[in-house]
Structures are given as structure tokens and as C-alpha cells.
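The instructor's notes for this session suggest beginning with a concrete chain rather than abstract definitions. Hand out the sequence below and ask the class to guess, before any prediction is shown, which regions might be ordered.
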Amino acid sequence: MAEAAKIDQQASAIPHVLVFPLPVQGHITSMLKLAELLSLAGGGGIRVTFLNSDYNHKRLLQFSDAESRSQNYPGFRFETFDDGLPMDQLTKGEKVSELLGEMDSKTRPVFKNLLVQIQPPVTCVIGDGSLGFISDVSLEIGIPIIRFRTISPCFFWINFWLPEVIQAGELPIIGEEDMERLITKVPGMESFLRCRDLPGYCRAGTDDPTMIQVVKATRESSSPAYPLILNTFDDLDGPILARIRQRLPKTYTIGPAHEHLQSRLGTASSSSSLWKEEASCLTWLDAQPPGSVLYVNFGSITMMRRDQVIEFWEGLTGSKNRFLWVIRPGSVCSGEMADDVQMPEELVEGVEKGNLKVLVGWAPQEAVLGHEAVGGFLTHSGWNSTLESIVAGVPMICWPFFADQQVNSRFVSEVLKLGLDMKDVCDRRVVARMVNELMVERKEEFRRKAVEMARMAKESVEEGGSSYRNLELLIEDIKLMSSSQVQGLGEIGN
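After discussion, reveal the predicted structure:
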């Protein structure tokens, strides 16, 4: 009996971390990589439970090798929840802002019930920073909380200062005022942040009160006492990170998460796609000259009007450059085009001919960006895609859709000098001009900068690198938190 009690005590001393992302592709991707890193780097000394919506978990099982996680990491498991929300509808386009509000009311009680009942007891929660109720519930129950912000550090920093920007009268943006006007009240960004670089909810008359409240809550929930995880590396975001750490000393930069995991595994990491990945595009790339192909993909959430799609098509074909365009099923809405105006057949059914390939489906993006034939990336500027492009050493043309993408595109072009910012423009002439500028006229200039940044990204996740060290420190913190939590549970039990 004494021996059994000793075994139970030893088992309860093992940290049990619950990781809970916003249930959309980009957030799942980066937080699942972190969950794997904790399972791997913890050397079996950490249990990890990844919490997924039923809807997304079914897709993950269908289209990825999700089950391999449990086989590769003995302490890893998935847990799912169902709060009755129509996840298939709320994870498209700007509907994501509705998802935040709906989850606050519908998912909060489901999460609280799960957190109380789950066994073994959770000793630490790593919650998506965009879901404030995760922190509320965890602290109410008495479980330590660590926030993971899957957005870019520069966007996090803007959100942090948004109340001051509003108080100074620099926001909201009113009507059709000068979009080139500088925003001067965000420290470190005074010289380059414009009205144009801020998301739609910074405009007067926005009908998106949920998102603005979430943004305002960034600082309210960012206590120096609570650790913060960011998916970046110090050489990429050094100046902004220095400012963030002045306010939030326990800020751990562990990225690029996908490269960090691959470095520790010594091989390509598992897929986390919610769509079937079509590998045929890799075969097509094999037949193209090195650095000759522009990869085009606007991500997992962006919705495009038919007229916008046609402008890109005409611009891309008119540039005379090779390109691979991945069009996500269901990503094109009718827009305001006349009924008799039809999209080219190639964009509806896909095509492979000459110097172009249109894939109506989904692609293994890390593998595509890492292919030697790819020389540029026309992207929506989601943070995962930006990091994947940086790691691959591929310069970008940025056409952002919403949220942090507006800021990311400015950061890529103005601060990192890794590409071109095409926000607020959807014109075939501009598309053709920018494609040629990236792929021909300034190709070597952009390529040199991109290759150097890729080198720094990879060094950051190698043993001794900044992200490698930060992950080790994070794991130590988790073990200390969990030790205190287990001790407290023991005292309550006595």
C-alpha cells in the first residue's frame, strides 16, 4: 500500500499542461507545435493535453497524421469539447470575430467543467491570449496560467498601447481621412506605423465591438506576474521584444515554432492541416528552374470576391512569371460582379500548363516554401505564413486581409525589407508590376536579405540559440508552477 501511494505521489508530481488554442487553423498550428515541443523537450517529464473542438479534431484526424503525436510522445493526448457552436461557419473570414464573442458565452462553462473534472488534475494552462475567458476560469479555479499570443509581437505591442492611442485622438480613423497619417503613440513604431497599417476595427463606425473589446483587454490581462509566450525569435523582433519585456519580464520567445520542433526532432514535423494536402504541386515544382516560381496562397481564413480573384489572375498571367496558386475551397464569394461575368475555368477547376499551376485545394506549405524552385511568396501575411517564409528564405509580396496581417505586411516591407506591401490594392497592373519587381528586378536584393534572416531563424532554435534557451526556461517555469500547484492541492486534501 505504501509503495502504491508513493507511485501515485510521483505520478501526481509530473506537471500536466493543458494547451487550449482558438479553434482556427493558424492558432491550432502554432500551439500544437508548442505542445509537441513541451512533450519532446520535457523528456517525458511533462504531460500535455491539447484541447480541440470536436469539429476541428475530426478534420485533424481526417487530413493529418494527428494520431502520431500520441505514439511519439507518451505523455501527450488530445481532449475535445463541443459547445454547440457552428465552427464550420464561424471560422471563415471576418466571422472569426463573432467566434470570439460566442466562445466567451458558450465555451466558458464547458471549459470550466472540463478543467475541474479532467484527470490527472491540470497543474498549468497555456491558453490562447485571444480568449480571455481561459485566464478567467483558470485563475478562478486556482490553476497557473501562461498566455500564448499567436499574433506577431508588433501587433501585440500595438494592442497593448491602443488605449493611449485612442486617448491621444489618433484613433479611431474617421471617414476617408489620410491613410498615410502616422500613428505616433506606439513606442518604437513612431516612424513607420500608419493608419493604413491598422485593422478595420480601428475605424470609426465599425460594427465589430467584440474585437475592439478583445484588443483593449490585451493590457488588462497582461500582468507582469503571468508569463507570455510569443512565436518569434530575438533577432527578428529584438527592438519590440525589448520594450515588451520591460513591461512583461516573463516573455518567452520560442519560435519559429515549426522550425524549432523540426530541429529538435531532426526530421520534418507532423502535419496539422484541417484540409487535405495535395502533394501534386511538389511534383510540378520539381520540373521548374530554381527560384523561378511565385507561390500564391492567401491562407485559411481569407475570403475573396470574384472580381478580386480575376484581378490577381490577370496580373499574375500578365507578369509572364511562373506561379503556383493554391485556392482554398470555399474561399471565393460572389462579390458584386454581374451574373454574366464568369471566372476563368482554370480558377474553378484548377489547371497545370506551361509556366503556371492552379491548385483548387490545399498544399503542404512548409514543403512548398522550402522547395528550391520557389523564389517568392504572394501571401495574406498571417504570422505563421510570414515565419514559414522567413525560415525558407523566401521574400514576400503582402496582401493582408485582417487582424495582425495589416501590421505584418508593413513590418515585412518597411522594417525587415523582405518584400513588398500591396495592401488596399487589387489591380492587375499593380500585381504584375510587383511580381516583376520581386521576381526579376530586385530578386537578388530581396533574396540576400531573406537568406540571411533564414540563417538567424535556424540558429535561434539550435542548441544554445535564443529560442532554444527560452524553451528550456519555460519548461523550468512550468515545473516550478506545477510543483507549487501540486503542493497546494496536497495541503487542501489534508
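Then share the key points. The CA atoms of residues 184 and 190 lie 4 Å apart. Residues 11-272+463-493 form a domain with the Rossmann fold fold (CATH 3.40.50.2000).
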